Amino acid sequence: MDPRDHLAPPDADAPEETLYRGRWLSLRKRGRWEYAERNNPGGAVIVIAVTPEDRVLFVEQYRVAIRSRTIEMPAGLIGDIQGQEDEGMLLAARRELEEETGWRSARMAFLHQGPSSAGMSTEMIAYVRAFDLVKVGTGGGDASENIVVHEVPRGEAGAWLFARAAEGYSIDPKLFAGLWLLEHGPTA
Amino acid sequence: MDPRDHLAPPDADAPEETLYRGRWLSLRKRGRWEYAERNNPGGAVIVIAVTPEDRVLFVEQYRVAIRSRTIEMPAGLIGDIQGQEDEGMLLAARRELEEETGWRSARMAFLHQGPSSAGMSTEMIAYVRAFDLVKVGTGGGDASENIVVHEVPRGEAGAWLFARAAEGYSIDPKLFAGLWLLEHGPTA
Fold it and tell me: Which of A71, A91, B53, B113 has its CA at 20 to 30 Å from residue A134's CA atom?
């Protein structure tokens, strides 16, 4: 595929070892490289959603790993529900959007997929754009989540995120990627 | 700090356990949450750099975790050199930019710091903008790296990244965050 794969380091062909397998994550190793891997290999999907009132949807929740509240776009794991492991990316995106925000999307478009932190993880993150939103519920996530929904006017979204960061919220830079894809991606 | 910290789940105050400590990464657990942590806790820094010819600097390298070539912005760990663990973020950014690309920056500005994947990792990523670039070397990284430098006209950077993704390169969405910060951040 890539004409420069011959520049790959010798580690690339070393056997892969599992150093530890947890309930949700494993720590793996290839050559001298260590990395985390989700035991559910489907990856995650982030939903870029704008309401008919031109407001971008964000969700606020507490993340135990970093012991901090975060602002994120609606997101979830692909195929993390027992018995639905083969659900598609767009299906997962639609489900998470509705569970977390109460908005249902009639049409979704795949925008991009890439690694979230290729130096230490195999996690792949996809972005989809949700169109034609209709409010069907209150959101808030499933029973294990405690999610606050924010609807922010599109033109103020960047400044709003920086204001939340200044207040102490953790803001994943992937949110700014979401804004870039919103500004430069398909509009309908 | 955050008036809504009382909404944190009970897991937030569970004791932290180390499930496994590797050479570079550890797998840790708090309550029912598992996450990866770098043994070097300084975090990473991404450098948004534009040459005097208005070209954005990208680096191409092979990432063993995902067994794929990636396009990234110049980046590195803060304080990962033995004896220099307390080097500052801007110092690390300047060093990595020069090592990887051969460009030296006379002035750097901090833009943002946030988690790279708060659901599974404690890693924090900072973005800095490099100004006043002067070419001082060829780049290519240190002895363990094999880095190809790309200089892409600023207005074509987004399309160029999508073209590389179509060729099979892995493109971390944080690159689009870098472009957003370039478009909306300080210009000098």
Answer: A71
